[in-house]
Write a structure and sequence with these properties.
Elements: E1 4-10, E2 16-21, H1 24-32, H2 38-41, E3 47-54, H3 57-68, H4 72-79, H5 83-88, H6 95-121, E4 133-135, E5 142-155, E6 168-184, E7 188-194, E8 200-207, E9 213-214, H7 220-235, E10 245-252, H8 262-274, H9 278-283, H10 291-297, E11 302-307, E12 310-315, E13 326-330, H11 337-347, H12 352-367, H13 371-389, H14 394-398, E14 405-408, E15 416-420, H15 426-431, E16 437-439, H16 440-443
Parallel strand pairs: 7-10
Antiparallel strand pairs: 1-2, 1-3, 4-5, 5-6, 6-10, 6-11, 7-8, 8-9, 11-12, 13-15, 13-16, 14-15
Helix pairs in contact: 3-6, 8-10, 12-13
Length: about 450
């Protein structure tokens, strides 16, 4: 377990940001360059006003969560080393409350340590821990309520061949999914799923036992959740070993048929809740390359590549100067990614030269600085994947009279396509019957 740091930054607007990391200098550079947290990149420049070093990174993570719950006055007292005021600002002066806080601290720390180890295994020391404890001062009970959020995803390059090790470019979207959990005093899971309008589209209850069972007749969604719960139990044997249960509410920020990651965002949220590896949870449930999990966890465009079966995720500076000429158009023909992968596996042949070409396209696309070159790369990419999968490119099939470039994303033929056009394409696609047209800046984080 490496050493860790907890730090406090003062932002340009006077607000404080508290974080933790295994490499303080590197993380400060990321914040200062705008590649840190959402809070800081909108409030540059930032100034380091406090830090502490710990022998274990999980201790730093715990300290971060503790400080984040403090008032501004208490943080100032810590920054100024004013320990008398720090004591005065403490919320729990009552001795019984303090002892209870110590018990909670110990229990929380064990959970955080497990979460930390999973985070380090996944190679992402900045992934948020899914853990919040609050004390109900009106009684002796402890209410536990937690919330996680995962970004949606779009794969810009490398569809299909990402499964075989191609270097791919992916972007997290401004649309995602949240998951909230409240501990209840019954050994069951009360599940409710809301759509982007806040309307319930699915609900069920599950009994927590050696075998988790639904209280409703068998259906595809409940069966899939039971499968996910079973894999969670395999990855974290102690997670459902409790006399208590959970009230779970999920909410998507986008229509389910958009294909932005209804499943992957759910998997990433559940993995944070259960302190398990999200890549393993995905592999043993829905399958896939894992790039969507990487997008769920990152707030910037990324490169993604499987190396010896392990995900390698790197932030990339993909912020094209011509992005006001890029659009995402929804074809409203929802594709099943598992079926798309099956089709690809049945039609692929020797991929060495293909993967090399896609790798080069990805690198060139990240560095591309003009629309014309970008369109050329889109066309070349479409041609290569078309030859591999024996499918007709979407522009040739649906939009052969369009004055611009169009590229399929993810599973070909149904979800979003990327459109590059010098002219605003809204009228063209509206006349074709496609009314979901989202400019780049409104889609991508």
């Amino acid at each position: 377990m490496p050493k860790g740091f907890v730090y406090i930054l003062e932002c340009s607007d006077g607000t404080f940001y508290t974080g933790s990391t295994i490499d303080l200098d590197k993380r400060l550079d990321e914040h200062q360059s705008g590649n840190g947290a959402n809070h800081t990149k909108k409030r540059l420049p930032v100034n380091l006003v406090f830090f502490e070093e710990f022998q274990r990174i999980d201790d730093a993570f715990y300290r971060e969560k503790q400080i984040q719950g403090w008032s501004r006055k208490k943080k100032l007292a810590l920054i100024e080393s004013n320990f008398d005021k720090l004591k005065d600002y403490a919320e729990c002066k009552n001795d019984s409350h303090y002892k209870k806080w110590l018990r909670l601290r110990s229990a929380t720390k064990n959970r955080l340590r497990s979460a930390t180890e999973n985070r380090l295994r996944s190679g992402n020391d900045e992934q948020p821990i899914f853990e919040t404890l609050t004390i109900n001062n009106k009684s002796e009970s402890v209410a536990e309520r937690s919330r996680s959020y995962s970004n949606g995803k779009l794969l810009i390059t490398g569809e299909y061949v990402v499964l075989d090790g191609a270097l791919s470019l992916a972007v997290p979207t401004k649309y995602g999914q949240s998951l909230e959990v409240e501990t209840i005093n019954e050994p069951k899971i009360i599940w409710k799923s809301l759509n982007e309008k806040g309307v319930v589209w699915f609900e069920d209850e599950f009994i927590i036992n050696e075998i988790i069972k639904s209280l409703k007749p068998s259906n595809a969604i409940s069966d899939r959740l039971i499968q996910i719960f079973d894999v969670v139990k395999q990855l974290n044997q102690d997670f459902f070993s409790t006399k208590t249960g959970f009230k779970v509410t999920t909410k998507t920020g986008f229509p389910k048929n958009w294909g932005l990651g209804t499943s992957s965002t759910l998997i990433n949220n559940i993995a944070q809740w259960a302190n398990v590896d999200p890549y393993k949870l995905l592999e043993n449930t829905f399958g896939g390359s894992g790039y969507d999990i990487a997008c769920a966890q990152n707030n910037t465009p990324i490169s993604y590549q499987l190396q010896k079966g392990k995900p390698v995720v790197k932030p990339v500076n993909f912020n094209p100067s011509f992005k006001n000429h890029l659009y995402f158009v929804h074809l409203n023909k929802k594709q099943n990614s598992r079926e798309g992968i099956k089709y690809y596996n049945n039609h692929k042949s020797d991929l060495n030269s293909v993967i090399s070409d896609i790798n080069n396209i990805t690198l060139k696309m990240v560095d591309c600085n003009n629309l014309s070159d970008f369109e050329t790369l889109l066309i070349l990419h479409e041609t290569i994947i078309s030859n591999v999968t024996k499918q007709i490119p979407v522009k040739e099939r649906l939009f052969n009279d369009f004055n611009g470039s169009i590229k399929s994303l993810g599973a070909w033929g149904g979800d979003f396509v990327l459109v590059a056009s010098k002219e605003n394409p809204f009228n063209y696609f509206n006349k074709k019957g496609f009314d979901t047209i989202i400019p780049y800046d409104e889609m991508v984080l």
